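ok so i was messing around last nite and threw this chain in just to see what happens. nothing serious, just curious
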Amino acid sequence: MTVILGALLTIAGVVYMAGATLRRGRLSDPAPTAPDRPAPNLATPGPTLEPRRRGLGFLGLSQNWPGLVMIGVGIILLLSIAVR
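result:
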C-alpha cells in the first residue's frame, strides 16, 4: 500500500507542476508587458518560439511548492520501503 501511495504522490506532483506551467500561458509567446513598460526585445519580429526575455520564472519555488512537496513525500514513502 505504501508503494502505491508513494508512486501516486510522485506522479501527481509531476503532473501538478506540468499543469501549473501550462496554466501560466503559452510558452511560445513573449511574456506579457505592462502598458508602462517597453515591448520585449525579440529575436525576430512577431510571435516567435524564442523570446529573449521569457526567463525561467515558471520553475520558481513559490509556484511549484505543492508539487515539490508531493514528490518529496512520495519519494520518502518509496525509500521507506527500500530501507526496511
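not much to say yet. The mean pLDDT is 77.
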